[in-house]
Design a protein that fits this description.
With 81 residues, the protein is of the alpha+beta class. The chain is built from two helices and four strands, in the order E-H-E-E-H-E. The strands form two sheets. Strands 1-4 form a two-stranded parallel ribbon. Strand 2 and strand 3 form a beta hairpin. The longest helix is centred in the last third of the chain and has 17 residues. The two termini are 18 Å apart.
């Protein structure tokens, strides 16, 4: 079993917002505002850049890629306190 480090939601959000700026798909304005843990996987949430009708835009794909990347990098290392 993996040894994950417990981390507060606030600290994890700060870390995630810092790390995501290095992601290839990062766009100015992206911000992680919430995180939950489901079955050992960290699920990040924030602005999805939907259009006026609430439909995905080109930016939405980038957001999903960045949030998925954060989950891939941070889930094996951390668990929410």
């Amino acid at each position: 079993m993996e040894n994950k480090q417990p981390i507060s939601k606030e600290s994890l959000l700060e870390l995630a917002n810092h790390i995501m700026k290095e992601h290839d798909d990062y766009l100015a304005g992206m911000l992680v505002t919430d995180v939950a843990e489901k079955a050992g996987v960290l699920v990040f949430k924030g602005e999805y850049f939907l259009d006026e009708q609430g439909l995905p835009t080109v930016k939405t794909t980038a957001v999903f890629n960045v949030y998925k990347g954060l989950a891939h990098v941070l889930s094996p290392q951390y668990t929410l306190e």
